[in-house]
Amino acid sequence: MCVLGLGLIGGSVLRAAVGAGREALGYNRSVEGAQGARFDGFSATTDLTEALEWAAEREALIVLAVPMPAVSQLLSHIKDVAGDCPLTDVISVKRAVLDAVRKAGLLDRYVGGHPMAGTAHSGWSAGDARLFAGAPWVLTVDEHVDARVWEQVMHLALDCQAVVVPATSDEHDAAAASISHLPHLLAEALAETAGEVPLAFALAAGSFRDGTRVAATAPDLVRAMCEANAEQLLPTLDRALELLNQARASLADRGSVAELVEAGHAARARYDSFSRPQIVTIAIGEEDWRAELAAAGRAGGVIRSALPVLGSRR
Amino acid sequence: MCVLGLGLIGGSVLRAAVGAGREALGYNRSVEGAQGARFDGFSATTDLTEALEWAAEREALIVLAVPMPAVSQLLSHIKDVAGDCPLTDVISVKRAVLDAVRKAGLLDRYVGGHPMAGTAHSGWSAGDARLFAGAPWVLTVDEHVDARVWEQVMHLALDCQAVVVPATSDEHDAAAASISHLPHLLAEALAETAGEVPLAFALAAGSFRDGTRVAATAPDLVRAMCEANAEQLLPTLDRALELLNQARASLADRGSVAELVEAGHAARARYDSFSRPQIVTIAIGEEDWRAELAAAGRAGGVIRSALPVLGSRR
To answer: Which domains does chain A have, with CATH numbers?
Structure first.
């Protein structure tokens, strides 16, 4: 396989994949990333064409691990040099990548992916082969996806010790808006609001530290993920603003924040008891397999060990 | 000393104070709390009059560690039975307690306190003698406070391994609104918003878990702290809403959240590099000592070892 982009996520995929016994080549635009990877004993290059030719010779799985703004240009190179390779990505939005892949004419070889893991740090040196251990890794089951490519990407996610959550691109993006992009915006607003209050930093403890942890993420990364998912983030942000405005009115008029606090506590309790049944009864490629996987994922189902592929039950 | 209320905070104060060699009696209204403390080897009673008579005999420091709604009734008992004892509290708002203390006629014996530590758990069993280690513990320096009482409460906080941050009640409340009460409301809104989105809990990872951690706090405690500080929380919440509304407009109109993300990241970076110089040059009771301590606290200053008291320099 070939990992394009050796930042936190791409670098961790390369480490985990090689750790699982895969042959893999990394590409990074900047010399620092590629040198860092080579210094740590991995194969890596700053020559994109070389990387893609290597992938094309082997029909290797290509993993796009670059920021969203770099995707389109990279896809046109892939189309030119390695257009027959199976293709996935680890980018935090799925609709925008899907549209770019369609535009590049690579849709039939593509299955979207998103490992839901990260830290506030970035770059090759921040990577960790264990980053994905136990984390949900979304694989898209949009109508176009091919069973054989899906199987390959599923094996990559499982090799990285993740649990696979099947979902459509749009459902993924709506969920990501609420559990990843909205938290980032709230954390930024909290940090800035407190930063304007004398004494606030002097008193800040756990609530503030936890609530602003993700505000330490590099601004470019936060912007890239939020802005590429504007379509889903806007209604999600509107809903949060509605809840906060209601609480504001209730506090001003009746001195109470009961409604928001009780609803929020109940939601968090539902999350804490949310179960993760293992998906075992669906075969990849069988009739309606994409819709069945999407429904199972929506219900909390995860793939912990490889599902069979139709025609290759062992 | 006498600790009234043996929940998470009061129970931790009792443990830490006894651990530091103090003689202390705990009071808890419910049998469970007092029994739990006795079972763990501490002196505790469910008889408030007995506890206050014990304190009055010794002129012991009384520590109010009950929820805000229970404060006024408790203060009138203290006034009746132990009106000469020095008095402090560990409640998360300071103006409301100050007003209640003034109304009860106990102002001349009172110094407000607030250890900035906690967990999502509550009750005697959740307490921990090390809960305050390294945490900021606000002591109020409003105009009325007496140097001798202040000295006693400072020693209690230092015995609990906290660092003392001097502040006026109103400055404390404004800061607490931004670093404690606002984070709770944002966490509740985040949990509820995500809870309405299919697939969200299935994908939730670090950003969501951190961002909603405090939503696991008992709703009554969150309501008590937010509602008792409505005067400061409302403008703080309004500022956060203003920042989020600006980001919403910018995302919708120009596809950008740059302004909020960059401001939030910069604020978080300022917090990470916020220094905590030790306050060493102020003597308690000297001219303008209260205003000087307030200014030092505002600048990040903390008391790590006991300040001298005028007339008792050793």
So the answer is: 2-167+276-298 (3.40.50.720), 173-272 (1.10.3660.10)
